[in-house]
Amino acid sequence: MEIKNSSVVTEFILLGLTQSQEAQLLVFALISVFYLIILPGNFLIIFTIRSDSGLTAPLYFFLGNLAFLDASYSFIVAPRMLVDFFCEKKVISYKACITQLFFLHFLGAGEMFLLVVMAVDRYIAICRPLYYSTLMNPRVCYALLLALWLGGFAHSIVQVALILNLPFCGPNQLDNFFCDVPQVVKLACTDTFAVELLMVSNSGLLTLLCFLGLLASYAVILYHVKGHSSEGKSKAISTCTTHIIIVFLMFGPAIFIYTRPFQALQADKVVSLFHTVIFPLMNPVIYTLRNQEVKTSMRKLLSQYVIC
């Protein structure tokens, strides 16, 4: 992606998460634990689904892609953040800032669309089981996967295009620990009202509509399973509950950040930390802990390659 901008700003200074040394050490330790324990767990989920011929249903196909998206997403912000903890002056170049922003929204939107696809998959499996094998065949699954990647790219490229047209002539201090739309737009040397409105429509409104649509779809599914057998009802409710937890973890912070005017609040950095670092690593783990088939397959895999 070629970046052209006539602004005089060539780098941004990140003010970081906090100025407290104790708080920085605590966050550093927390993120390090997540990377050392939960990130390998995400790759284990992917390897388990890929290696077990019994986990070929679309649900597991999408779960493996969710783990891949979340693992990739966690590499955008956290590694640089960990390095910056030991730097007195946290500097990021203009090009690196735009690149970080692009991949943040590219993968974030892709995951958002993936959750929508997973909701559609569960709706068809529970409410239209006779048509499930026809509607959710491998070709359709790969087409949906391609569509969500293209959707994420389209969403992100719009964000980047709007920012590249803004002039930046100083100041260049970003009051955050990474580059994101609200903070970058506020540094532009021009009136950004129209751009902010477009950004809120592109990110905030889209996120809110997907969130409400997902909640409505799971409400329909839960209503539909009332007449099922006890075993079928219990499994459907467990699956939907897991999905709803992930929906709130994913969409809650995004709605808080992107559906309001770009004005700094005290909670912004904490919400952004959980949104960009903590929750992405936890999402696939939450799915796995509530999925008996994946847990059984994972135990077999570990006993085969580790214990033996």
From TrEMBL:
GO terms for molecular function: G protein-coupled receptor activity; olfactory receptor activity. The chain crosses the membrane at residues 25-47, 59-78, 98-120, 140-164, 205-225, 237-258, 270-289. It is found in: Cell membrane; Membrane. Keywords: Cell membrane, G-protein coupled receptor, Membrane, Olfaction, Receptor, Sensory transduction, Transducer, Transmembrane, Transmembrane helix. Pfam families: 7tm_4 (PF13853). It comes from the Eukaryota. It is a multi-pass membrane protein. One of its GO terms (biological process) is G protein-coupled receptor signaling pathway. GO terms for cellular component: membrane; plasma membrane. Residues 41-287 form the G-protein coupled receptors family 1 profile domain. Gene3D superfamilies: Rhodopsin 7-helix transmembrane proteins. PROSITE patterns: G_PROTEIN_RECEP_F1_1 (PS00237), G_PROTEIN_RECEP_F1_2 (PS50262). Signal peptide: none annotated. InterPro entries: GPCR_Rhodpsn, GPCR_Rhodpsn_7TM, Olfact_rcpt, Olfactory_Receptors. Belongs to the G-protein coupled receptor 1 family. PANTHER family: OLFACTORY RECEPTOR. This is Olfactory receptor. The gene is Or4n5.
